[in-house]
Structures are given as C-alpha cells and as structure tokens.
C-alpha cells in the first residue's frame, strides 16, 4: 500500500511539473523610427516629420503609451498607397480611413458569428436559413456600417515623398507620395456604431430560432470589439 501511494504521488508530481506555464502577454511598444533606420525599396526625399510616427503601426497602442483617454476616445490609423501627388494621397487616406473602420467592424462581426456557440447550438453560417444573412454580410454590411461611422475626426496627418528605385528592390524607378492619418472617435459613438451594425445583422435573419442564436452571439459584440483592439482577446 505504501508503494502504491508513493507511485501516485510521483505521478502527480510529474503531471504537475509537465503542465506548461502560460507566458504573460507582453505588449510591444510602438516607436517613432528614423527614416535612415528602415530598410526599404525607396528613399524618403521629403516628409512632414524626420521620424515616422508610431501611431501608423498601431494607433491604440500609441494612444495608450501617450496616455490618451481611451475610456473617452478610440483611435484608428490609415496609410495610403503611393500616389502621384501629396494632395491626392491625403484625400484618399481621409476618405478611406472611415471605410477602413467600417470594414474592421464588419470583419469582427463576421468572425464573432463564425466562432460563436450558445450552449449546444452554434450559429452555422452554412445553414440554408442563414444564406440571406451570409450574402448580406459579404456584399452589403460594410457599406451600411460606413454610414454609421459618425464623428471620426482626423487629428494627425503624416506624409512622405518617396523615390522608388529598382536598385533597392522596386519594380521600377518612380516618385510618389504616401499619406497617413490618425482618426479619433468617441468611444460611445463607436460602441453605438458596432451595436447598430449588429442589430442590422439580427434583423436580416427571418427564422425565429436562428435569429435568437445570432442575437445572443452578438449581444456583447461592441465590448468585445474594443477588447480585441486593445489586444485583450
């Protein structure tokens, strides 16, 4: 009996010691990078700043590092592709930034539904009863959500004049401008936009049982969206 107890204790110790420890998530800071420190296929000939702003890489992390009030406001960033003039690049960034927010909300709602489970019932997007909803989310939802994104204002702009060179890896030699914008949106407005988008989705489901499952799956979607952007999910 003593030997049996000893064996059980040893097995317990091995099992405990073999359990992998969960490593803590370390948030990597975003930094302003000097142009000369970036390996790229172009040379920066002119720019609105000697340093590339950290908010372009991750607006939320930048806002947290710079002690912005994230309970009151949320931050988004968008950078244009190379364009012929600075004005065109910045106009495109300002216009597309809001569309990008709408696309991010839409993608998160789609992902939430794809991975959701309510008890033993899951939201199966391959269910024929949900085919109209699937088509709506794929073709219409992003455009509809874009009309809900109100109050997002541009608070910072950064542009670069670049000279792309084949010798550095570019497909051809040419000059172009890029422009990035930082948007600020009230957290309450953002939450309402996400909730309104979720309501649009729920209303598109005709079958009562399926509608209830979708409604349950999206009941916390606005809070989860914020958590996901913070890296908490």
Key features of this structure:
233 residues; alpha+beta; 4-stranded antiparallel sheet; two-stranded antiparallel sheet; 45% helix; 20% strand; elongated; disordered N terminus
Please explain how this structure is put together:
- By secondary structure, this protein is α+β, with helices and mostly antiparallel strands.
- It has one domain (27-228).
- The protein contains 8 helices and 8 strands; from the N terminus they run αβββαβαββααββααα.
- Helix 6 (187-203) packs antiparallel against helix 7 and helix 6 packs across helix 8 (221-230).
- It is elongated and about 60 Å long.
- Mean pLDDT is 81; it is low at 1-28.
Topology:
Blueprint: H1 2-18, E1 33-34, E2 42-47, E3 51-52, H2 59-65, E4 73-79, H3 86-115, E5 117-118, E6 121-122, H4 131-139, H5 141-146, E7 153-164, E8 174-186, H6 187-203, H7 208-217, H8 221-230
Antiparallel strand pairs: 1-3, 2-7, 4-8, 5-6, 7-8
